[in-house]
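As a representative case, the lines below give one protein's residues and fold tokens.
***
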Amino acid sequence: MDLLATLRADPARACLLCDCAGPLAPIVDDPASAAPLPASVAALHRLAGRLGRVGVVSGRPAAWLHERFGDGLVLSGLYGLERVTDDGEGTVVELAEAAPWRPVVAEVAERADEGAPPGVVIERKGLSVTLHFRTAPDQRRWAEAFAAEAASETGLEPHGAKASIELRPPIRVDKGTAVRHLVGGYTAVAYLGDDAGDLPAFVVLDELAAQGVATVKLVVDSAELAEEVRAAADVLVGGPEEVADLLSELAASLR
């Protein structure tokens, strides 16, 4: 596969970054029960000792990522609003301009909890809140209306994803800005994603490719995959299990 050839050419100058939910962790009805596959976690840690940089860039909070991936990987949470430091203690730091939005997000999350119809799951993330309607697809309109009203009243910005809408501070960060911060100086970069939130990261890889960097954009296929995300892929991967196999194969090839 292209990923193997691209990253094996010069491992010390290669960077591998992955989204979590979808590629590494199967999508589940209850976001609180989501977890990366152990085989993927193990493979990423093996790769961290062989590639120049290995990391997870996710919409999940940085502390959540550290609980599940531990030390040794670059962990960027909430689309770059938070990150785990490399102090070995799991210390989370956030963008200074994000802190004032915590009480705003908390207030909106409280309102969502009180008003959510049955089946809609409210996921509190500290600096953002997500309205999940996967188990209540008929409540999409409620979620969209609630998000639009909350955004108008508070200044938070709504972002759609798979069967969900997230409200985040109006700070110009996304997976693209997070990836751009991590890839400087590498001659090969691969990114693994699965939804619209990963498109800004793919744009950064296109920019790198235009500058002569070897890049691979991998997308996890599913029935919910948006066509614009599918169109951005260099390689389609069947699902989290296939991702785990691919990462394990790559790690084994770099011994």
Observations:
- The longest strand covers residues 214-220.
- The chain has two domains: 2-94+173-253, 97-168.
